[in-house]
Design goal:
Structural class: alpha/beta
Shape: globular
Number of helices: 15
Distance between the termini: 69 Å
């Protein structure tokens, strides 16, 4: 009996030892991504995925790095100081690619991003034609800049002759240029709607009303890094898609508001102004076709001059598709994942 008992105890110890070693191996295999974003609009998929424990479940460690200047963010990506950029528009990354950077867009964060056109209260606005002959304050290369110029170009106007764009480095200075009368209109990035109203000005137009799903913030990385880290990005998408699913639930966006307030130390009214804006849509899908459309419009109004670059070489939808496929295989009857696949087939094929 004593011999049998000793064998039993030894077996139990052996099982626990193997389990502990397995746990250690699993922890050691957690993959890490250094992800840069602008603090002004947060990183809501990240916050929800962290809150729900999805990052741990998917064995992915995300180091958030907040960089509020696009130029600095692209420099950090190019030099390898960060691995992924999330909230720096579509136009900015496309300009970087056009200038020779080996970057590849592989997913989304927002498809439209609440970038209002505004003016002083006495300024008349009856439609896009009201911008003609006027001065417009803008940050060059940002989503407001690219989308507004794309709208004007598609309407048949010459952006170099029919309007005067005054390029300014900061959103706050764009607002001041309009408030002080130096410019007639302005357009700013996500999160500035309350400040526009507090300054006594009015929003006259939302660009997404004239260019629906125009493509705002895309996720991108260095092409070489992406090729070597596809598994890490797949895990990231699995966690973010699960978070996005939760955001669709009745209390989902209220949870996002609270998490964003905590993570960014922002007042509730400011967070709700963009998180729950009807002019901002959080979306993980790559929306490849919309990115191509923006590339073509930017060629049309002269932002991209080198016609030899094939933008398709800098777009990768396979990692996102792989993550979505795996979630659907695990949850074949889930309505959310089914709708995401329908969306993928509509906007990426």
């Amino acid at each position: 009996m004593r011999v049998a008992y000793r064998i039993f105890i030894a077996a139990i110890i052996s099982v626990f030892s193997i389990a502990m070693l397995a746990g250690t191996t699993e922890a050691a295999e957690k993959l890490k991504i250094r992800l840069a974003a602008q603090a002004t609009s947060g990183q809501v998929f990240q916050y929800m995925a962290k809150h729900k424990g999805y990052l741990d479940e998917e064995a992915i460690d995300i180091e958030m790095i907040y960089i509020n200047n696009g130029t600095d963010a692209f420099s950090a990506l190019s030099s390898g100081k960060v691995d992924v950029l999330s909230t720096y528009g579509t136009g900015g990354p496309l300009i970087q690619i056009a200038n020779g950077q080996k970057f590849t867009i592989f997913g989304g964060y927002m498809i439209i991003g609440a970038t209002p056109v505004f003016a002083r209260p006495e300024t008349e606005y009856k439609g896009i034609e009201s911008l003609i002959g006027k001065k417009i304050a803008i940050m060059r290369g940002g989503t407001p800049d690219i989308v507004l110029k794309g709208i004007l170009h598609e309407a048949g106007y010459d952006i170099n002759k029919d309007v005067t764009f005054v390029e300014i480095k900061r959103n706050q200075d764009v607002m001041e240029a309009v408030r002080s009368g130096q410019c007639d209109f302005g357009s700013v990035s996500t999160g500035f709607e309350p400040q526009i109203k507090e300054s006594g000005m009015k929003i006259v137009m939302w660009p997404d009303e004239l260019w629906p799903n125009h493509s705002c913030c895309r996720m991108l990385s260095r092409t070489e890094w992406q090729a070597n880290n596809a598994e890490a990005l797949k895990r990231l998408f699995r966690a973010y898609l699960r978070a996005e699913r939760d955001m669709q639930q009745p209390e989902g966006m209220d949870t996002v508001v609270k998490l964003t307030m905590k993570e960014l130390d922002m007042p509730e009214a400011l967070v709700r102004s963009f998180v729950q804006s009807p002019h901002l849509i959080y979306e993980t899908d790559p929306y490849k076709n919309k990115v191509v459309t923006m590339w073509e419009r930017m060629q049309g109004f002269g932002y991209i001059k080198d016609k030899s670059i094939n933008i398709e070489d800098h777009l990768n939808t396979s990692i996102y598709k792989s993550a979505l496929d795996s979630l659907l295989a695990e949850n074949p009857d889930d309505a959310f994942y089914k709708s995401k696949m329908e969306m993928f087939n509509t906007y990426n094929m």
